[in-house]
Amino acid sequence: MRVHPRVRRTAIALATGLICVSGGCGGDDGVEGASEDSVRDCLTEAGLAVEASDLGASASLGSASPDFRVLSDDGEIADVIVERDEEKASKTAADIEGAKQSFGAAQAVVVKEQNAVVVFEDEPAGEFREQVEGCAG
């Protein structure tokens, strides 16, 4: 079954956002590992576009959403969540993995790097994945 890309993006954002509502995502207070600012700065220095998370896709979740979104020149998308420590990031990644089927986002790729979780919309190209994971870890 082919799912329209906008529906797929919304499902991924919704699944990620619900995990944030249940567990509280992001923020730099008490972070053990990379900070949200350092990850964002690294991605920008790598030449990737960084923008606020897609609030339109998760408006029903209130203020809960990934910390920010990364876009490649080829239109690839990754949502990034920076947690306070590796244990919290592991739990968040596992929760998103478990929820993505329910939201029709089985093709999403969830990666945990230290205290950051990256949710790629689809299997990313090698260079994009390396850049994002390198900055997250």
Explain the layout of strands and helices.
Elements: H1 5-23, H2 36-45, E1 49-51, E2 68-71, E3 77-82, H3 86-100, E4 109-113, E5 116-120, H4 126-136
Antiparallel strand pairs: 1-2, 2-3, 3-5, 4-5
Helix pairs in contact: 1-3, 2-4
Please describe what this structure looks like.
Helix content is 40%, strand content 17%. The chain has 137 residues and is an alpha+beta fold. It has a five-stranded antiparallel sheet with strand order 1-2-3-5-4, with helices on both faces. A hairpin with a 5-residue loop joins strand 2 and strand 3 (77-82). Helix 1 (5-23) packs across helix 3.
How much of the polypeptide forms β-strand, as a percent range? 15-25%
Shape: globular
| Straight-line distance between termini | 34 Å
Count helical runs. 4
Overall mean pLDDT stands at: 76
H/E element order: HHEEEHEEH
Structural class: alpha+beta
Walk across the major sheet and give the strand order: 1-2-3-5-4
Q: Which residues form runs of ≥5 with pLDDT under 50?
A: 11-28, 58-64
| Percentage of residues assigned to helices | 40-55%
Count of extended strands? 5
Q: Sheet bearing the most strands, described?
A: 5 strands, antiparallel
Radius of gyration: 13 Å
